[in-house]
Amino acid sequence: MARHLLAAGHEVAGYNRSAEKAAAWAEATGGTAVETPQAAAEHAELFILCVGNDDDVRQVVTAALDTAPSGCVFVDHTTTSARLAREMGELVRGWDCAFVDAPVSGGQAGAENGQLSVMAGGEAEALAKAMSALQAYSKAVQHMGPVGSGQLTKMVNQICIAGVVQGLAEAVHFAQQAGLDTDAVYGAISKGAAQSWQMDNRWATMARGEFEFGFAVDWMRKDLGLVLEEARANGSHLALTALVDQFYSEVQAMGGNRWDTSSLAARLQDRAR
């Protein structure tokens, strides 16, 4: 994502908590690596971050506020709780800055190809200030409402993915158990009502038992935990999502913590042995 910012003509100071990653990025792209969040935020119009979880965001944003100039817009692409987004919104407002919670969908491939989808929460003025940067690595940016709305929308996204991937895993498993040619099955059904991004990008690899890429199970469980926590708070009934979260815990028990989310198929393949 930072590479796309540079390519679009933005001046970027790149910080990573693993300093060697920032150094490698700078060497590969010609960007500037810095050693602290404070150095990244100094003189910045935008402070864009994507880290691991609520605590990580809180740590990085709090540090960056030491040097962030008045009017700086913080854009957080991390998938977090909506509660954390609102907390950060209040925090940065006290420093005369703005906060946009802007989780993304599209995975590693979307980031590398500049084709992410961004769901954003925050003030329209703040989002407008960040828009040219967001468009450098995104194909779509949708303003969803006040701070926290982006994270709630990402939860909807993860609910949809969880159900689709489980259905796809069962479909591949059924086709294999029935003795069908999975490539031929894909050709027969992928242009009809069953088609999805997951089918187009994961059917073949699921059928081959390949899961060493893409969005990791550990991260998906983190996201689904946020979903289920929010559902308990707002009274939503997410029986299927809770069940798929349980299935992912079984994949973790198989050693698949860093496997792609499509590894729900591995659980079924293991049971069929």
Descriptive notes:
This protein has helices at residues 2-7, 19-29, 37-41, 54-64, 82-93, 107-113, 124-134, 149-177, 182-189, 197-208, 217-234, 239-253, 264-272; strands spanning 13-14, 32-33, 46-49, 73-76, 98-101, 104-105, 116-121, 138-145. With 273 residues, it is mainly α. It folds into two domains: 2-146, Rossmann fold; 152-272, Orthogonal Bundle (N-(1-d-carboxylethyl)-l-norvaline Dehydrogenase, domain 2), CATH 1.10.1040.10. Strands 3-4-5 form a three-stranded parallel β-sheet, with helices on both faces. It has a three-stranded mixed β-sheet with strand order 6-7-8.
Number of helices: 13
CATH top level of the largest domain?
A: Alpha Beta
CATH superfamily of the largest domain: NAD(P)-binding Rossmann-like Domain
Helix content class: 55-70%
Residue windows where pLDDT falls under 50 for at least 5 positions: none
Radius of gyration: 20 Å
Structural class: mainly alpha
CATH topology of the largest domain: Rossmann fold
What is the approximate shape?
globular
- For the record, the CATH architecture of the largest domain stands as 3-Layer(aba) Sandwich
Q: Topology of this structure?
A:
Elements: H1 2-7, E1 13-14, H2 19-29, E2 32-33, H3 37-41, E3 46-49, H4 54-64, E4 73-76, H5 82-93, E5 98-101, E6 104-105, H6 107-113, E7 116-121, H7 124-134, E8 138-145, H8 149-177, H9 182-189, H10 197-208, H11 217-234, H12 239-253, H13 264-272
Parallel strand pairs: 1-2, 3-4, 4-5, 7-8
Antiparallel strand pairs: 6-7
